[in-house]
Amino acid sequence: MIRILANDGIHPDGQLLLEEANYEVDTNKIPQEDLMEKLQDYDAIIVRSATKVRKELIDACPRLKMIARAGVGLDNIDVDYAREKGIKVINTPKASSLAVAELVLGQIFSLSRYLYQANRSMPETGNSEFKQLKKRYAKGLQVSGRKLGIIGFGRIGQELARLAMGIGMEVLATDLEERKVKVYIQPPAVENASLAVELQTVPMERLLEESDFISIHVPSGKDLITAKEMGRMKKGACIINTSRGGVISEKDLLEALDSGQLAGAALDVFDNEPTPSAAILQHPLISATPHIGASTLEAQRYIGLEIADAFIDFFGE
Ligand SMILES: NC(=O)C1=CN([C@@H]2O[C@H](COP(=O)(O)OP(=O)(O)OC[C@H]3O[C@@H](n4cnc5c(N)ncnc54)[C@H](O)[C@@H]3O)[C@@H](O)[C@H]2O)C=CC1
Ligand SMILES: O=C(O)C(=O)COP(=O)(O)O
């Protein structure tokens, strides 16, 4: 029997598919430091971003035939090394794109209307402070008509463009290569109706200078956005990062927020996950979430089902 360790969990529907195909699926989390010994008893491992599958672990587990990333980013897996050793490595590139794009849209609304700040203040508000808070948060921005800059115009970036144009935002996108992409805006209430808009990528400099909100959707990379790029951004713009920690310099971000160059930031990913710096988490102008971009019931279900299908394709029923 094929034994699979789903070390960061798997949606029950994916697990059921695998079990119906006679696979044994173990969802009891094994701490990273014990994996070297315990993973030796399994044919495959399924991980999210928490478990790291590095060279040493791969070397210690000769029975391992498949590593599945239940999600997109493969930065926690030594992919090339695993493949050199004949181990199949897969991920689920599309299943969570909409979930991430929806989180970004939520953060755009949260930043533009101070929702994250108001939520922090309201529980301690008595009669007298209510009016003060009403005044403090009275200068919200209308999102419709504002410019959204999308850095990294792949699956998530395009999904976000579609949602943002649907609420009347103007979209600018940039990517490593020039690209012209058709984005289909579908008003949910109108069946079979969609409006195709062709979006041509622009140089990064233009995007930085013109956007009111900037959202980053590149795979990874160190310091893509530093003081230099933040200095080019419109004064009072907001930045959102759901890609990977390190892509934005956290130190430079804190300075840009403190100086008033940027008005706010929303972060789902951090340097030093799972223990981001207190300066970031406690900053009054940062709306932080604990790496939940892919964490909707729907996305995790699609991921689980896609992973199960991939296993059955690879190992057979
Ligand atoms: N917060 C979360 O829970 C999640 C985060 N992610 C992150 O989002 C990333 C993006 O996902 P997808 O859109 O599916 O990837 P994708 O591969 O479809 O798109 C990435 C795009 O970024 C572009 N790119 C790469 N480097 C760039 C640079 N320096 N400047 C401009 N463009 C650049 C690529 O050419 C590509 O078009 C993932 O790699 C992952 O790290 C993905 C899912 C969930
Ligand atoms: O899929 C990705 O790249 C993500 O960052 C999602 O991470 P997670 O599976 O939620 O730990």
SSE layout and pairing:
Blueprint: E1 3-6, H1 12-20, E2 24-26, H2 32-38, E3 44-47, H3 55-60, E4 66-69, H4 79-84, E5 88-91, H5 97-112, H6 115-121, H7 127-136, E6 147-151, H8 155-166, E7 170-174, E8 180-185, E9 195-200, H9 204-210, E10 213-216, H10 227-232, E11 237-241, H11 250-259, E12 262-267, H12 278-281, E13 286-288, H13 297-315
The chain binds 1,4-dihydronicotinamide adenine dinucleotide and 2-oxo-3-(phosphonooxy)propanoic acid.
Commentary on this structure:
InterPro entries: D-iso_2-hydroxyacid_DH_PdxB (IPR050418), D-isomer_2_OHA_DH_cat_dom (IPR006139), D-isomer_DH_CS1 (IPR029752), D-isomer_DH_NAD-bd (IPR006140), NAD(P)-bd_dom_sf (IPR036291). This is D-3-phosphoglycerate dehydrogenase. Residues 106-293 form the D-isomer specific 2-hydroxyacid dehydrogenase NAD-binding domain. Its EC number is 1.1.1.95. Keywords: NAD, Oxidoreductase. There is one protein chain. With 317 residues, the protein is of the alpha/beta class. It folds into two domains: 3-92 and 297-315, Rossmann fold, CATH 3.40.50.720; 97-288, NAD(P)-binding Rossmann-like Domain (Rossmann fold, 3-Layer(aba) Sandwich). 38% of the residues lie in helices and 19% in strands. The protein has 13 helices and 13 strands. A six-stranded parallel sheet has the order 7-6-10-11-12-13, sandwiched between helices. The protein has a five-stranded parallel sheet with strand order 2-1-3-4-5. Helix 3 links the parallel strand 3 (44-47) and strand 4 (66-69). Helix 1 (12-20) packs parallel to helix 13 (297-315) and helix 5 (97-112) packs across helix 8. The mean pLDDT is 96. 1,4-dihydronicotinamide adenine dinucleotide is lined by residues 71-73, 93, 96-97, 100, 151-157, 174-176, 217-221, 224, 242-244, 268-269, 291, 293-294.
